[in-house]
Every structure is written in C-alpha cells, then in structure tokens.
C-alpha cells in the first residue's frame, strides 16, 4: 500500500512538472503551486562580506551535503522508524497506564486528522520540492539532522532562521517546522529546522547539546547554501524555545568565561525569538503533571530536581554570577498567546522581565485569546494575514528596503484548511 502511494505521488509530481512546462510556467517553484505564496524576483547584488568568526570556525563542522538521494532518504526513514518504534515501547514503560496521557494522545490523533488537508499539502512540498534539502547531517548522533528551506531566488545572500521545534521534549521532530520553513522561504529567508534527540533516547543535556551543534553547523556552513552568516536568527517553539534558550545561554556563559573550545559564537546570532516557551522549570513541574506529563517523567527528562536550576534560563539569568554572560546575549523577543494552557503566558512575561532587569534587551509580544497551537499551526493554515508571521519578517528584513517593499505588496496566503475544521481542531487540541 505504501509503495503504491509513493508511486502515485511520484506520478503526480511528474505530471505536475510536465503541465508546468507545457503551460510555460516551468520557472515557478513547485511548492508555490500548492501554497500560492509570492515569489521574490530581485536583482540585489551579492554581499561579499562574511563574518570573521564564521571563517575562523569553518573547519569545525563538516562540509555541506547538497545532493538528495531517494535511496538514502528511504534508508534513513527505515532506521528512524525502527528507532522510534523501540523508543515508543521504552516510553510506554515510563508512562504506564494513565488516564490523562491516554486521553491526550487520543485527542492528538483527532486533532491531526482534522488538520490533515493542510498537512498533506505541506507534506507534498516537503518531500517533492527541490527547495527543501532534507536530513543534512550536522553531528554523529542518529537524530543529528537538519532540514534546509531555500528561497527560489538565489540572488544575493539571504537572512537565515535556525528553528528548533517543540514536542514536549518527547515527540519533537524537524519536519514539524516545515510550514514555517516553507512560508519564510517564500519571503527570501532561509530556514534551518534542527532535529535533536528526544526522551527517552536522550535527556535535556543531550537535547541542548544537539541544538548547539545544529546552530554551529548553520553558522559555519550556511554561506555555502546562499545564506548570509551576518544575519542569522535563532528561534524555538514550545519545548524548542526552552532548548534553544538553554543552548544560547550556555554559549554566552562559555564565552564570558573565555573558554576556547567553542565552534560558534553568540555574536553570530542577530536576535532570538521564543514562541510559547517555558523558561523556569521549577514553575512548570506541577503544571505539567496536572496536564499528563507526569512529574516522574518530567524530572527524568530534566535529569532530576538537582538539574532544574541548570536548565532554567530564567533562573540562570537572575544569577549575579552570570551578568557578564547576559550582556553578550542578542536582542530577545518572546511571543505568547494569552489563552495558552500548555505553557501559561506568564512564563514569557516573567522571563522577559527578568532579562530586562539583568540588562538584556528583551521584548514581549502577547496575542490576546491565542492558544498554544493557534500561533504555530491554526493561524498559518488559515491563510490570509498572520500577525506573528508578519512581525517575524519585519524584524528579519529590518534595514532591507527592497525586501520590506516586497513584503508590503505580497498577496495574502491561500487557506489550506477549511475554517470549520480549524475551529473543531482548536476545541479538541490537547495542547
């Protein structure tokens, strides 16, 4: 059944390409035919500058692997399927029989089915667009892979967003960022979605290490993909916001202590975007326990109560001994919905306040009535104007007059999921 589906998809992709050629529209990117996003067509001269730190650390990471191999993808998918299956049984032993997590898992399945019309369109772009470079190796662990979303327009160096996906530290996966990646690529922004080990394959220190390695790879190699090493932005969503914040702060502390064994620098990150994240683990233990992520499992993920301080960015920022490290942090913007029950918006409010008191440049943007998934899934799938997306693009394109002009006249994006399904999904969402 799976092979027959693959055959039909390949035939569909081939037929689509032939139709484009016959209609004289072969130059239009494949993913744009599905998502109907505007395609940039600029003649901006190529920037010749490259950050000195990127040149200094260039030898620290492996060279990029550009060629996509279908057989390699199949082999990698088979290995990941086996790994995920075995880890699922291990996770079930941790979870045991519990009413809360089982009902939320059922709700997650129903939620995904309701949004399936949009997910399928994005999946076709993800697997068949030449603008998506999948599973680029950045380290030696099984999950040390990242996906690159490249703009159709290759003129000039592009700004870059390194994105760390969420997933409750258990079900995170790089493909969860495909919708954001495809959208930003249509605005001439390269997106690197970093994968990382999940629990029980790894614990929080492994996740932070993987994220840091992924960031390092992008900083040292993105110029080879047309990215501008002087315009790299770091972003995380939910658990990914927590992991990426930990990685950023860890790096700042290393640099403040003048450690020499570093492969990237905080100064290479122009800004950090935290979406619906939690930054103080002490305040989240009981909250997650009530929502089905039981205290024993959460503490296992975070390596015990004694490690909560180490992996709570808010607590570490508040530590006077880290003042020099805080001064090295890039501008930080935290986004959160006020109706977020998975991670309350107070998590971002308090963290922003803590950062400001410590001397860091931090802004907080709250979205009234938005839930944990509204900002990241329902709103983008709805099409039209998306306030979060527009704010991200405006920051990334700040100072680029030509890009801002193109953003101003870009047509609204096409709806991918009917409104009724979006409303039902919002009601049933387990997040």
Automatic annotation (TrEMBL):
The keyword Translocase does not apply. InterPro entries: AB_hydrolase_fold, BD-FAE-like_dom, GDXG_lipolytic_enzyme. Its EC number is 3.1.1.n2. Residues 1-22 are annotated as: Disordered. It is found in: Endoplasmic reticulum membrane; Golgi apparatus membrane. Keywords: Endoplasmic reticulum, Golgi apparatus, Hydrolase, Membrane, Transmembrane, Transmembrane helix. GO terms for molecular function: hydrolase activity. It holds the Pfam family BD-FAE. It is a multi-pass membrane protein. It comes from the Eukaryota. Residues 146-355 form the BD-FAE-like domain. One of its GO terms (cellular component) is endoplasmic reticulum membrane. Its main location: endoplasmic reticulum. The chain crosses the membrane at residues 105-128. Gene3D superfamilies: alpha/beta hydrolase (3.40.50.1820). Signal peptide: none annotated. The keyword Metal-binding does not apply. It catalyses: [protein]-C-terminal S-[(2E,6E)-farnesyl]-L-cysteine methyl ester + H2O = [protein]-C-terminal S-[(2E,6E)-farnesyl]-L-cysteine + methanol + H(+). Belongs to the AB hydrolase superfamily. Isoprenylcysteine methylesterase family. This is protein-S-isoprenylcysteine alpha-carbonyl methylesterase. It comes from Pyrus ussuriensis x Pyrus communis.
């Amino acid at each position: 059944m799976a092979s027959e589906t693959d055959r039909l998809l390949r035939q569909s992709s081939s037929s689509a390409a032939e139709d484009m050629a016959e209609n004289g529209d072969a130059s239009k990117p494949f993913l744009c035919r599905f998502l109907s996003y505007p395609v940039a067509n600029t003649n901006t001269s190529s920037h010749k500058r490259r950050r000195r730190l990127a040149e200094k650390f260039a030898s620290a990471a492996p060279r990029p692997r550009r060629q996509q191999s279908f057989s390699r993808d199949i082999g990698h998918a088979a290995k990941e399927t086996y790994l995920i299956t075995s880890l699922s049984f291990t996770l079930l032993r941790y979870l045991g029989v519990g009413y809360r997590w089982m009902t939320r898992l059922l709700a997650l399945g129903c939620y995904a089915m309701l949004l399936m019309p949009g997910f399928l369109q994005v999946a076709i772009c993800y697997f068949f667009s030449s603008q998506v470079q999948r599973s680029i190796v950045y380290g030696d662990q099984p999950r040390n892979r990242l996906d690159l979303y490249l703009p159709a327009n290759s003129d000039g160096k592009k700004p870059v967003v390194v994105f760390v996906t969420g997933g409750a530290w258990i079900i995170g996966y790089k493909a969860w960022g495909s919708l954001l990646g495809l959208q930003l690529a249509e605005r001439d922004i390269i997106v690197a979605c970093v994968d990382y080990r999940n629990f029980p394959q790894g614990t929080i220190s492994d996740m932070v290490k993987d994220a840091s390695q992924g960031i390092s790879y992008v900083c040292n190699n993105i110029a080879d993909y047309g990215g501008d090493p002087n315009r790299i932005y770091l972003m995380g969503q939910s658990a990914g916001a927590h992991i990426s914040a930990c990685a950023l702060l860890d790096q700042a502390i290393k640099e403040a202590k003048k450690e020499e064994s570093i492969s990237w620098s905080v100064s290479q990150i122009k800004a950090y975007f935290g979406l619906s994240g939690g930054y103080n683990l002490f305040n989240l233990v009981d909250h997650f326990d009530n929502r089905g992520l039981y205290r024993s499992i959460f503490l296992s993920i975070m390596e015990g109560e004694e490690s909560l301080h180490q992996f709570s960015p808010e607590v570490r920022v508040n530590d006077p001994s880290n003042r020099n490290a805080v001064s090295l942090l890039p501008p930080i913007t935290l986004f959160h919905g006020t109706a977020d029950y998975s991670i309350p918006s107070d998590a971002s409010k308090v963290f922003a306040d803590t950062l400001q008191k410590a001397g860091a440049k931090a802004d907080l943007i709250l979205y009234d009535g938005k839930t944990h998934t509204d900002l990241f899934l329902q709103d983008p799938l709805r099409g039209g104007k998306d306030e979060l997306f527009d704010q991200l693009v405006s920051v990334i394109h700040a100072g680029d007059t030509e890009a801002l002009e193109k953003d101003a006249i870009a047509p609204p994006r096409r709806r991918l999921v009917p409104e009724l399904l979006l409303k039902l999904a919002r009601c049933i969402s387990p997040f």
